[in-house]
Amino acid sequence: MEEALKDNIMGALELVIDPELGVDIVNLGLVYDLELNDAGVLTVTMTLTAMGCPLAGVIVDQVKTAVTDIPEVKETEVNIVWTPHWTKDRMSRYAKIALGVQ
Questions:
Q1: Is the pTM of this model over 0.85?
Q2: Structural domains in the chain?
């Protein structure tokens, strides 16, 4: 996937806010990988801040909605993984400041 398209997709995913933390999933470091196949199927590999998150379905739906306006993306699959385990070290400087994390 070309870098400009990847940046465009990541920018769209910044609109997906983790409802518990109030910060987007990109700055939280929850998005691990993006893959777009020749048929236009985008696979977003991501994690959540906590296993058993009751809002996982909401976040998945928001991810799919966030990328619908990107012409290259025809369909979106969200792959929730638990490895590697998410830690606050994956958060951007912005997210750490917003949440008061050192």
A1: yes
A2: 3-99 (3.30.300.130)
